[in-house]
């Protein structure tokens, strides 16, 4: 059956002959017939996806102006033969592409099916028998639970088997599902290592393996998938990332929290200029916070708490003008002052620096912004070594709901303006050297 969207061949084949010389009529038929062949080639190129070699060959023919030359414009007989050869080449190329694309499509959907069956064979616990009953060769793989196929190529484009309480390991054959764009197996009990073959999935945009029991090394090539936008490996047992050479140019969200990752903060994240969400908390990272993080100006969430980081908080974090949440809690070796520029970030609504070794005074204008009101809702600075007095204009941070300044070395009186914080639900200021009721 001819697809309805296939270009119609009527133009050029049904030209009226009345009043036309035979050679002129043949020229029009020739030119428009080849134009139709090119249109058909475009259609099948989009429908099945020509490979790199096929595209190069096709466009080489397509861009040659001699292909479109009417016969009467060709004077040299040898040139005429060459042009006819080019035109015939397009025809043969088209026929070959149609045949190979059709067979390739069939082969690849079978490859997808085999990869998913390999995954099914690795499942050792399926309490609700979702996969055992549903993933059967008697039905199309595109109808299997958790499987989505693309309309265009009839290939598996998404695999989402999250929250099924499955137990098992991940087979390397998943790396053969070449059109896969989403891979989600989060909230299960998968264990073992991640296969390096997953890095072959060059169309992947979303990976979510969070809340499993995966362990070992995180395959470094995964971070180099250029199409990857979101990667979550949260709450597993990964221990290391080895030889990560660079970060994906389109990576916007990276969550490696709640693992056992060691060493310094991975340097590849500094190349991820599109990064908006970064969570490396609850690992065993050590060393300093690189000042180059301040170049990731699209960051909205920076969470690197509950590690073993040391040194000072870089002033460059003040360059993160779109930052909304900052969490550096429980890095007891973090020292120095809190960069005052942080309080100038208009979008920042949460600061959590609890349980570090930070010193110095808080800026008294931390809630006074000339161009915008403070959006700060959560201010958690307890269990540090902060000194001075509680900022007298703290009451101007009208959006505050949680204020935790306890167990520092604040002195003096409690500012009267704190009474203006009508939205506060939690207020901790004990464990300091405060006197009196208020100023």
Keywords:
24 strands, elongated, 21% helix, 13-stranded mixed β-sheet, 439 residues, 19% strand, 5-stranded mixed β-sheet, Leucine-rich repeat, LRR (right-handed beta-alpha superhelix)
Gyration radius (Cα, Å) is: 32 Å
For the record, the CATH class of the domain at 286-438 is: Alpha Beta
Q: For the report, how would you describe the main beta sheet?
A: 13 strands, mixed
Number of strands: 24
Strand content: 15-25%
Roughly what is the average pLDDT, rounded to an integer?
Answer: 84
Q: Just name the CATH architecture of the domain at 286-438.
A: Alpha-Beta Horseshoe
Anisotropy-based shape: elongated
Strand order of the largest sheet: 2-3-5-7-9-11-13-15-17-19-20-21-23
**What is the helix/strand order?**
HHHEHEEEEEEEEEEEEEEEEEEEEEEE
The CATH superfamily title of the domain at 286-438? Ribonuclease Inhibitor
Helical proportion? 10-25%
CATH topology grouping of the domain at 286-438 = Leucine-rich repeat, LRR (right-handed beta-alpha superhelix)
Low-pLDDT runs of 5+ residues are 97-106
How many helix segments?
4
Distance between the termini: 86 Å
Class inferred from helices and paired strands: alpha/beta
GO molecular function, one term: histone binding
Subcellular location: Membrane
Membrane topology: Single-pass membrane protein
Domain Leucine-rich repeat-containing N-terminal plant-type: 111-149
């Amino acid at each position: 059956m001819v697809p309805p969207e296939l270009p119609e061949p009527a133009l050029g084949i049904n030209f009226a002959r009345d009043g036309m010389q035979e050679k002129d009529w043949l020229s029009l038929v020739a030119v428009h017939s080849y134009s139709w062949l090119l249109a058909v080639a475009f259609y099948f190129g989009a429908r099945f996806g020509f490979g790199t070699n096929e595209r190069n060959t096709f466009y080489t023919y397509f861009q040659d102006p001699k292909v479109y030359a009417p016969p009467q414009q060709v004077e040299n007989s040898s040139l005429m033969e060459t042009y006819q050869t080019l035109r015939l080449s397009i025809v043969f190329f088209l026929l070959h592409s149609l045949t190979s694309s059709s067979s390739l499509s069939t082969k690849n959907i079978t490859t997808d099916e085999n990869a998913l069956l390999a995954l099914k064979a690795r499942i050792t616990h399926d309490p609700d028998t979702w996969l055992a009953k549903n993933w059967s060769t008697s039905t199309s793989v595109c109808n299997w639970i958790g499987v989505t196929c693309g309309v265009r190529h009839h290939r598996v484009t998404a695999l989402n088997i999250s929250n099924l309480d499955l137990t098992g390991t991940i087979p390397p054959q998943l790396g053969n599902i070449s059109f896969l764009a989403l891979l989600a197996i989060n909230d299960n009990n998968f264990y073992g290592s991640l296969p390096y073959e997953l890095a072959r999935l060059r169309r992947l945009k979303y990976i979510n393996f969070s809340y499993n029991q995966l362990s070992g090394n995180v395959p470094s090539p995964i971070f180099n998938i250029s199409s990857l936008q979101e990667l979550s490996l949260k709450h597993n047992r990964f221990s290391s990332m080895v030889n990560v050479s660079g970060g994906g140019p389109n990576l916007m969200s990276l969550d490696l929290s709640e693992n056992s990752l060691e060493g310094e903060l991975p340097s590849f994240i500094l190349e991820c200029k599109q990064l908006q969400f970064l969570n490396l908390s609850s690992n065993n990272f050590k060393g300093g916070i690189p000042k180059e993080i301040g170049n990731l100006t699209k960051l909205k969430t920076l969470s690197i708490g509950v590690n073993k980081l040391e040194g000072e908080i870089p002033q460059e974090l003040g360059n993160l003008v779109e930052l909304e949440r900052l969490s550096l809690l429980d890095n007891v070796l973090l020292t120095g002052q809190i960069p005052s520029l942080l309080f100038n970030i208009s979008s920042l609504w949460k600061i959590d620096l609890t349980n570090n070794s930070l010193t110095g005074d808080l800026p008294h204008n931390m809630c006074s912004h000339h161009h915008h009101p403070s959006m700060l809702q959560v201010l958690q600075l307890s269990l540090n070594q902060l000194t001075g007095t509680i900022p007298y204009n703290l009451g101007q941070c009208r959006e505050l709901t949680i204020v935790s300044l306890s167990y520092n070395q604040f002195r003096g009186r409690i500012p009267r303006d704190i009474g203006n914080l009508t939205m506060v639900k939690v207020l901790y200021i004990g464990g300091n050297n405060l006197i009196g009721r208020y100023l």
